[in-house]
Amino acid sequence: MPDDATLVEQCLRGDTGAFDALVARYRDRVFSLAFRILGEASAAEDAMQEAFLRAYTRLPLYDPAQPFATWLLCLTARVCLNARRDRATEQRYMERAAKAAPPAPTLEERLYAREQRRTVQRLLMRLPAPQRAAMLLYYYEELPLAEVARALNTPEGTVKTWLYRGRESLRRWLEEELG
Predict the structure, then answer these.
(1) Segment 95-132, tens digit of pLDDT
(2) At what angle do helices 16-38 and 68-100 cross, to 10 degrees?
(3) CA 119/CA 84 separation, integer angstroms
């Protein structure tokens, strides 16, 4: 079997089989190094593929005066260290996002919110149909006032009146229910 320098030389002349021979020769060592740096088999597999890809594309930069194994393993170590850095950066972003997100509601909070929605729905049903429609379109569907007026075929002033009266009725009924 040819030595590393010969295989590199053949590869530089376009013999892809020579690079396959180098991959077969160093696959286990590259994977082992990547696994020891990254600590996960899947991450080590990805790093190994990246290292061989970089080795192939950067083969013209290889100095034949140096051992190929050293060059390849140094390149692998850099790939792994970059992967760790990128994972750490991603982890920090994820932690920041988790801190910025509101905490998940507790069971009691979810039950209370559900009960509030049911109460509001029940009270909405007590409103006259035009007021209820205006309230739902404006507050729940978040349509602009002009769109609500157009949908209900009513002047905007009338819609404003319905919204005001609907809010006041709901407020009063809620106060009566809560005591």
Answers:
(1) 887 777 778 889 998 998 899 889 888 998 999 999 99
(2) 50
(3) 52
On the 0-12 / 13-18 / 19+ scale of CB atoms within 10 A, 55 is: buried
Considering only the C-alpha atoms of the chain, give the largest distance between any 2 of them, rounded to a whole number of Å: 92
Give the closest residue to 130 by CA, choosing from 166, 97, 156, 104.
Answer: 166
Residue with tokens 């009063």: 172
Q: 3-state SS string over 17-37?
A: HHHHHHHHHHHHHHHHHHHHH
Q: Between vectors from CA 66 to CA 63 and to CA 70, what angle results, nearest 5°?
A: 110
Structure tokens at 108: 């009691």
Q: Which residue is it, tokens 């376009």?
A: 14
3-state secondary structure of 65: coil
